[in-house]
Design a protein that fits this description.
By secondary structure, the chain is mainly alpha-helical. Helices cover 67% and strands 0% of the residues. It has one domain: Butyryl-CoA Dehydrogenase, subunit A, domain 3 (Up-down Bundle). The radius of gyration is 19 Å and the shape is elongated. It starts with a helix and ends in a 10-residue tail after the last helix.
Amino acid sequence: MITGIARAGIDALIELAGEKTPRGRTGRLCDNPQVQDAVGRADAILNAGRQYRTAMIRDIWNTIAVGEETTIDQRARCRLAAVYAADSAREAMDLMYRQGGSTSYRRESRLAECWRDLHVVGQAVTLAPEWYPIGGRVFLKMDPGPRLR
């Protein structure tokens, strides 16, 4: 869900960039090399997070499908992948929001809507940064605490 919102944000900036000529400029927003760089980076960042999450879900699914129990390492990686995908989505969306200029914060702007929605979804406990040290404790062979056992 959160990565889908970020994708919508990237698409919203792409659409805006093709139409908007910033005040005081002669070229469209899409002609700006910084905007081009941000769109490329956002796409790569978002897709990297998505791929990691997909790979870890696939690993868990394949284990369950053959009737085996998941390992604590698998569960930790799955949680970390979800948090990392959310962090990647935030980073990608923030890049788009900055490049949208003053259009980004207007209530009717698709960029503003995506940015708000993404940050609301990102507050979910399953996507909280506290999963990073929990995963770290698993890999360090320490007790991860009750949330992952």
